[in-house]
Amino acid sequence: MTGTPSRVFIARLAGIAVFDPAGDQIGRARDVVVALRPPPRPPRVLGLVVEVPPHRLVFLPITRVTNIDAGAVIFDGRINMRRFEKRESETLAIGELLDRTVELKETGEKAIVLDLGMEQTRTRDWLIMKVAVRRVEHPNGRGSRLGLRRRRGETFVTDWDQVSGLTMVEEKQGAANLIAAFEQMRAPDLANVVHELSAKRRAEVAAALDDRRLADVLEELPEDDQVEILGELGVDRAADVLEEMGPDDAADLLGELPAEQREQLLALMQPEEAAPVRRLLTYADNSAGGMMTTDPVIVSPDATVAEALALIRNADLNPALAAQVYVCRPPTATPTGRYLGTVHFQRLLREPPPTLVSAICDTELDPLRPSRSLEAVASYLATYNLVSVPIVDEGGHLLGTVTVDDVLDHLLPDDWRESVMDPPVEEADEEEEALRRAAEEDRVPRGAAASGDGRRP
């Protein structure tokens, strides 16, 4: 691997681009697959988990990687696009080893794993040789008696063979460093990573994420994962996370729960957050009311173009929701006063900032009722080239809007998220199969290796 550093810290690989020899990006690195071996032999790196569009995780054998640096991984151009499936003998370095509690052999102190350093040997194998840790305690002052000037919270890098316990599954493992490795990742991508973790690690990651971030991730996960994670949170935390979700997504998730559990969570939510969710739960799933979101961008008739533009500049706003502003008489929270019309953001950009939105809103297109079918909503959007449609009641009050992404979500098969994250398993190629099978065999101590003499197979 010409140009590759002799040591690479694995957490820094999370999210970096993966290129073929022609310079075309095929995806991004998400994790590193390692085979843990009986001490004192260090773990062997088998390959990278790479995410390729659309949200498929594949395995890239380390033998096909030609260069690794701070900003990119380059491989020889050969990659099997079959979905990655972790085997029992394999471990995800970022997903499973970061945040584990280990013991420093020299002092008996406890430490948390922050990162792992892999190095290439003369035989061109990649092995985990270094561990970055943060000291968490001095048991019985032993470190002080040994004259060590190290303090709780100190971070440092040590050799792999100077720590013990990393290969032991921890009952209550943290997830702060795993989350830090994927901090810049968009919610759909992080959801894909979380989906591939064991149920235990999913629960630990969910516990460590803040409510807003967890809500964003839940919205992108398959329903089974959503229900599983919500059930692990405890009812108070679950209610807090549901409050952070969009009302339509929260209603969809609550609709998957037993009635008693659903009502318990709704009762724990803030009344103003629970009210729109309760309304959405009264509509059929494939109706306009069942698909709509209750928090579009709404302004009163006396609002100016400048004020409307300020609202749609919100970086947290869904792009489909930001495309149109709805003009309604007060109150401007759904259900609103009388709906007056819609202003597309392109029209806002063409008008002077002091212009009143009531003077430029489109009143010709009739809104839809919540009972309209999925097909009717889709036809409306396609006919008028819109990205969202207003939904009103019999009195003309705006109840919410259905966006094009809501329609696509319902037009696709019910299990479309699962099919994207879990496509049919295909055959592995010979080189990949040989590499991973050899690792499986290597995990069983035999011969001289079992005696602990440290010789490599």
Tell me about this structure.
This protein has 457 residues and is α+β, with helices and mostly antiparallel strands. The strands form 4 sheets. Strands 2, 3, 4, 5, 6, 7 and 8 form a 7-stranded mixed sheet that branches. Strands 1, 9, 10, 11, 12 and 13 form a 6-stranded antiparallel sheet that branches. A 3-stranded mixed sheet has the order 14-15-16. A hairpin with a 5-residue loop joins strand 10 and strand 11. The chain is elongated and about 75 Å long.
Q: Termini, distance in Å?
A: 23 Å
**Number of discrete helical segments:** 20
Low-confidence stretches: 143-148, 443-457
Mean pLDDT: 87
Q: In terms of topology, how is this protein built?
A:
Layout: E1 7-9, E2 17-19, E3 25-35, E4 44-52, E5 56-61, E6 65-68, E7 72-75, E8 90-92, H1 93-97, E9 101-104, E10 110-120, E11 126-137, H2 142-145, E12 155-159, E13 163-164, H3 176-181, H4 187-196, H5 199-208, H6 211-218, H7 223-233, H8 235-244, H9 247-254, H10 259-268, H11 271-281, H12 288-291, E14 298-299, H13 305-312, H14 319-322, E15 324-328, E16 339-344, H15 345-350, H16 374-384, E17 388-392, E18 398-403, H17 404-411, H18 416-421, H19 430-442, H20 447-450
Parallel strand pairs: 2-7, 14-15
Antiparallel strand pairs: 1-10, 2-3, 3-4, 3-8, 4-5, 6-7, 9-10, 9-13, 10-11, 11-12, 15-16, 17-18
Helix pairs in contact: 4-6, 5-7, 6-8, 8-10, 9-11, 16-17
